[in-house]
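Hi, here's the filled form for the chain we discussed.

Project: internal
Contact: R.S.
Residues: 61
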Amino acid sequence: MGGYLADRLGGVRLRSVLLIGIGAVYAIGTTLPALAAMEGLLPVGMACLSMGNGAVFHLVP
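And the returned structure, exactly as it came back:
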């Protein structure tokens, strides 16, 4: 998915948006008191990391 979005939006732009998203998810996660809230937020952060990995391969060649 990350590679597809990088082709459509541009690798640098997508990577920048995803890094902001990752930072926001984990910043919010540090303030959450409930485990259930973090269980819902963690997959969002992991999806951003995974798509960021796909966007890297758009930038490497």
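Let me know if anything looks off before we file it.
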